[in-house]
Design a protein that fits this description.
4 helices, Topoisomerase I, Chain A, domain 4, two-stranded antiparallel ribbon, Gyrase A, domain 2, about 190 residues, about 15% strand, alpha+beta
Length: about 190
């Protein structure tokens, strides 16, 4: 049976993981600027197995609007180009010798609004995950009280602490959403 400090610690850890996962999700959402992370989801056929581009090429930024992909092996260029073109990212890579340039097309106002909606939706999902963790933690503590291994005072204190952690994480999600929206709407 877990103790109240263990429950609080586990809940805190899971909430931190939720924030980390949310940050990863946000990094994949496109803004006006180029971000090498956008190609993380693109896989290329490498000797019969599907691998992320980052495992067969060096992905970096040429400038604010262009990603460069430098394949590690000679024959991979056309395969990488095709994989990027076939992805649903709407990118059009251009080959320059061994180097593949991936210019980021400017986003229309409508596309920017779609992206901010997506960011808000992902933020809401992260908040729901945090609230579910709060509920689970409170249920665990109530079970301890029911089993007479904790008092009502312990329950109230634990619920207060869990609520503080919940509020802190939800505020962090709100801040991340606001920052990402600002980044998307920047022209």
């Amino acid at each position: 049976m877990a103790t109240i400090p263990e429950i609080k610690q586990t809940t805190q850890g899971k909430m931190d993981q939720t924030i980390a996962a949310f940050k990863t999700t946000l990094s994949k959402i496109r803004t006006g600027r180029a971000n090498p992370g956008i190609l993380d989801t693109v896989h290329v056929d490498y000797y019969g197995s599907s691998v992320p581009i980052s495992q067969v090429a060096n992905v970096s930024l040429l400038d604010a609007r262009t990603i460069s992909v430098q394949p590690w092996e000679k024959g991979l260029g056309p395969k990488i180009e095709k994989a990027i073109r076939d992805s649903d990212l709407g990118l059009n890579p251009a080959s320059m010798g061994d180097l593949i340039r991936v210019p980021m097309p400017p986003m229309s106002e409508e596309r920017r609004k779609e992206m901010t909606k997506l960011v808000r939706h992902e933020g809401e999902n992260a908040k729901i995950a945090i609230r579910n963790l709060r509920r689970d933690a409170n249920e665990h503590v109530k079970k301890l009280v029911k089993d007479k291994t904790a008092t009502e005072d312990d329950l109230k204190r634990a619920e207060g602490d869990v609520q503080k952690a919940t509020d802190k994480h939800i505020n962090e999600i709100d801040a991340l959403v606001a920052a990402k929206e600002k980044e998307i709407m920047e022209v």
